[in-house]
Amino acid sequence: MHRISRKAFAYICLLCIIGFQGLCMQGEVTKSVFGAMPYGTEIYIFTLKESTLKARVMTYGARLVSLEVPDRNGKMADVVLGYDSLTPYTTDSKTYFGAIVGRYANRIGHGTFVLDGKRYDLPKNDGDNTLHGGTVGFDKRVWTAHEIPHGVELTLISNNGDQGFPGTLTARVRYTLSAHALKIEYFATTDANTVLNLTNHSYFNLAGEGQGNILNDVLTIPAERYTPVNAGLIPTGQLTSVAGTPFDFRTPMPVGKRIDEDNEQLHFAKGYDENFVLNHRGDGQALHDAARVLSPQTGRVLVVKTTQPGVQFYSGNFLDGTIHGKHGHVYAKHAALCLETQHFPDSPNQPQFPSTELKPGQAFHSITEYIFSTER
Ligand code: BGC
């Protein structure tokens, strides 16, 4: 019998360790049925697991259904609002819990815009305006999906004329998980000139969904300017300095500290619901900081980085306690906050804002990362 040399033994051990680490680091993606639409189409849910994070994404609205994150003691909690089953997602037309929002996230004034000299009319689902892509936006569509390494890729074809928008648009969204971050990548192409604004509408409560409100959370947004709105929450077109206003989050500030100040913008939206102009490098592809949130109670920290020019900070003002979410939790006003990375609202009607036009031959691509850590 041959004895293996010490050197060979050490080499085999090393290979085993590397192989074992590789297996541990590989993460896991599984697929199951979450429910079925009233007309029978099955809705699938993908579970993504990495060493310390777990996320679930479903094909209805390409929504992030849950996101489990450890606190400073390693205790896991689901930090996004939502429901336990499919049906309430399909009957809730107001919150957009966890959804990919499109074809145009945020508002388009008077539900109309002009592109290449032609006027397009959209369904008005927010007073006189169009919100989050119209009455049947991307959040209410069933996406096709398949597993990719560490994640899931979802695809939606939005036909020419869908909700009034021109051009057949193919949108693809990839959710991938790493040890400490959830990454969402957006891709889109069109066969005719159109406008596009895609975001994710997750409601975060870093103490855990259903665990009180976010007013004590400490928020930083590295933005010098924001885009003030009129009473209908449509931008006035100005880019206004945050200095001396309740919108100055350049240094860390509890969300609730100034939320009740006598400020017209805060009155219009019953709290924060404002687009911030991010200080980015302008090439459209570099990730820059959009926001940081600290939950003092649990030590959880969320840092949002994006390639997008803006972030809508919405403090859950229209949650009114009528929603019974996961585990029957009642979601009251300010039960969570949204940080929607995006182009500015109403850009198709505001030529001075960065353009949201997409043309045939162009490939839209944006990235947003949600990075988790803890503080003592
Ligand atoms: C908007 C809010 C709106 C909410 C709907 C947010 O993106 O900024 O005005 O009420 O979405 O859930």
Description:
The structure is a single chain. With about 375 residues, the protein is mainly beta. The protein has a domain at about 30-215 and about 310-375: Distorted Sandwich (Beta-galactosidase, Chain A, domain 5), CATH 2.70.98. The chain has 3 helices and 29 strands. The chain is globular, with a radius of gyration of 22 Å.
Q: Report the strand count.
A: 29
Bound molecules: beta-D-glucopyranose
Average of the residue pLDDT scores: 94
Question: Numbering strands along the chain, what is their spatial order in the largest sheet?
Answer: 11-12-13-14-29-23-22-17-20
Outline of the structure:
By secondary structure, the protein is mostly beta strands.
Fill in the keyword field for this structure:
mainly beta, 3 helices, single chain, binds beta-D-glucopyranose, 376 residues, Beta-galactosidase, Chain A, domain 5
What order do the helices and strands come in, and which of them pair?
Layout: H1 6-25, E1 28-36, E2 42-49, E3 54-58, E4 64-70, E5 76-78, H2 86-91, E6 99-101, E7 107-108, E8 112-115, E9 118-121, E10 130-131, E11 144-148, E12 151-158, E13 169-177, E14 181-190, E15 194-195, E16 199-201, E17 218-220, E18 223-227, E19 240-241, E20 253-254, H3 264-269, E21 273-278, E22 288-294, E23 300-306, E24 310-314, E25 323-324, E26 330-331, E27 338-342, E28 357-358, E29 364-374
Antiparallel strand pairs: 1-2, 2-3, 3-4, 4-5, 6-16, 7-10, 8-9, 11-12, 12-13, 13-14, 14-29, 15-28, 17-20, 17-22, 18-19, 18-21, 21-24, 22-23, 23-29, 24-27, 25-26
The chain binds beta-D-glucopyranose.
